[in-house]
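tokens incoming
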């Protein structure tokens, strides 16, 4: 029985022309060989399975070939090429940096570099997974890499370029390998199948290429697995069954159910998917990709952005014609939100089912919006936008003088929506001085204000707006919030004590002690009074503060200052006075 050789080794490229998907890199290397501009060190970096080590071997073989072809390819007939093909060449040295990453390994390499090649012109050292070298090994290798012998060329290969120190990078020519496109992978699998006499379906190879995610080595490993599973006939059905990939047909059926607003059918299809053992999160991401492919299928210009076979593309084009761009955009938003919050959901199946229900209701939501837009009448004399300024009739304009503007806010106007040219109580509560609203009205209206019955009244003697106790308490709460950070003690006082309404416009606070009374009268009283006048539109408001009854008594007197606390404690325990005098303590 003949020994089996995996396709990744059997069909490994042996010249630049057979390298798949890296045309720009192979062309550059051949041009360097043609002009004899060979660098002392190269760095090949990129994802796994894209041909980094393969290109390094081909390059090493080609520069030692004695009879290069016109296209700068190795002849495969000279002694150097035959030695390389048979695996006995002493000009090419491969080192795995993952297992040889110490300083001693780099010292051995430095000693070996001094020996010139016996056959050929160059000694090529291919160091794979070079990012695995330790920092000390990099430093030991640095001098040799910077000034190697004329016959030595280094080719470093890595999948993680960011882990290589900058001093190494600066001494290498860097080649970034790309992921291999789906079309190139499918074409190479076709070539291998023809060589092996295997029948195939292009849609099957498209699934294999997408599963490989740009790595040719992974694609060839999957190819061998499929051949072992299905024999010499590779079908689309056999591939999705073996690789546990969800069939495209499920996504088309789901989209049809969404377009028909069939909630029950959507949930039944999802249940069928779960019974086949597919992961719900992978289903959500795949459904999102399906909507993306439908969106790009609506235009022939973007059709090439979809990675699928010709037969699948025709289905996408047919179904995309039934979907509006608005529906697809909304569907992408819904699936994205489900994908982001999937891991945080406790009941993940219900989470996905809610997504399906939303998708099935998208068209009905669009119809509701359209019907609402058509049935909504056009409002005349509607409230103008913020930046457009108020619309003022010539007969209703009144000039605003430099004296304070007086407004009278009626109770009926508080509950109604004020126009942009009027002064809002809520806006005034956020502005302690009450000047921002006045300034905005003056600037936006060009020095005029539109007068409205039951909303704004301008007088020359002062503001006499009416208010309720609830509005007063709300204004006091707003003011106390504004001083919370700078004066926490007064914030606590205003929050815990409610004023007494002695008359319609007179408020009285009862303070617990003289310290509290003095602080309120000195720091807060005038500011609070000005705030209430501007907020409530009334200049007749008065505020006073008195000591509550029994506040001077021992039981009712609260301790606020450090002196009060120490005095109280020392009366209970006279030893504290001695401690204070002995250690010369202060209250701070």
């Amino acid at each position: 029985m003949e020994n089996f050789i995996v396709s990744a080794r059997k069909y490994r490229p042996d010249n630049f022309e057979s390298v798949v998907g890296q045309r720009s890199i192979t062309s550059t290397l051949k041009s360097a060989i043609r002009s004899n501009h060979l660098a002392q060190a190269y760095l090949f970096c990129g994802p796994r399975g894209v041909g980094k080590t393969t290109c390094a071997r081909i390059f090493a073989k080609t520069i030692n070939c004695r009879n290069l072809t016109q296209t700068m390819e190795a002849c495969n007939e000279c002694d150097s090429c035959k030695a390389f093909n048979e695996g006995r060449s002493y000009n090419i040295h491969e080192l795995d940096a993952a297992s040889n990453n110490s300083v001693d390994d780099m010292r051995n390499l430095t000693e070996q570099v001094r020996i010139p090649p016996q056959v050929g012109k160059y000694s090529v050292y291919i160091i794979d997974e070079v990012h695995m070298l330790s920092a000390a090994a990099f430093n030991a290798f640095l001098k040799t890499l910077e000034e190697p012998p004329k016959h030595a060329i280094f080719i470093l290969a890595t999948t993680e370029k960011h882990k290589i120190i900058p001093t190494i990078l600066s001494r290498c020519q860097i080649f970034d390998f790309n992921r291999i496109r789906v079309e190139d992978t499918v074409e190479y699998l076709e070539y291998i199948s023809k060589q092996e006499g295997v029948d195939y379906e292009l849609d099957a190879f498209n699934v294999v290429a997408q599963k490989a995610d740009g790595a040719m080595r992974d694609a060839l490993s999957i190819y061998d697995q499929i051949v072992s599973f299905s024999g010499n006939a590779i079908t689309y059905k056999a591939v999705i069954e073996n690789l546990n990939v969800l069939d495209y047909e499920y996504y088309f059926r789901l989209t049809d159910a969404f377009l028909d607003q069939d909630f029950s059918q959507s949930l039944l299809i999802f249940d069928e998917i779960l019974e086949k053992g597919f992961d719900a999160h992978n289903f959500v991401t795949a459904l999102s990709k399906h909507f993306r492919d439908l969106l790009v299928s609506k235009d022939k210009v973007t059709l090439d952005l979809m990675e699928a076979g010709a037969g699948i593309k025709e289905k996408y084009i047919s179904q995309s014609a039934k979907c509006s761009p608005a529906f697809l955009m909304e569907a992408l938003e819904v699936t994205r939100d489900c994908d982001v919050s999937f891991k945080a959901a406790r009941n993940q199946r219900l989470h996905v089912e809610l997504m399906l229900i939303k998708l099935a209701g998208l068209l009905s939501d669009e119809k509701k919006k359209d019907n609402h837009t058509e049935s909504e009448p056009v409002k005349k004399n509607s409230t103008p936008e913020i930046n457009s300024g108020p619309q003022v009739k010539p007969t209703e304009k009144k000039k605003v003088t430099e004296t304070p503007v007086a407004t009278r806010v009626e109770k009926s106007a508080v509950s109604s929506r004020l126009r942009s040219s009027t002064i809002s109580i809520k806006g005034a509560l956020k502005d302690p001085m009450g000047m921002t609203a006045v300034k905005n009205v003056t600037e936006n209206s060009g020095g005029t204000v539109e007068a409205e019955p039951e909303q704004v009244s301008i007088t020359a003697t002062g503001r006499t707006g009416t208010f309720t106790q609830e509005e007063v308490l709300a204004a006091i709460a707003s003011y106390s919030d504004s001083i919370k950070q700078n004066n926490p003690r007064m914030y606590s006082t205003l929050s815990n004590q409610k004023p007494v309404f002695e008359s319609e416009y007179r408020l009285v606070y009862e303070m617990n002690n003289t310290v509290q009374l003095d602080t309120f009268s000195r720091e807060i009283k005038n500011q609070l009074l000005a705030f209430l006048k501007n907020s409530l539109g009334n200049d007749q408001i008065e505020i006073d503060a008195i000591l509550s009854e029994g506040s001077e008594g021992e039981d009712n007197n609260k301790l606020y200052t450090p002196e009060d606390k120490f005095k109280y404690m020392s009366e209970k325990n006279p030893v504290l006075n001695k401690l204070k005098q002995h250690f010369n303590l202060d209250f701070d």
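note: The first helix runs from residue 7 to 10.
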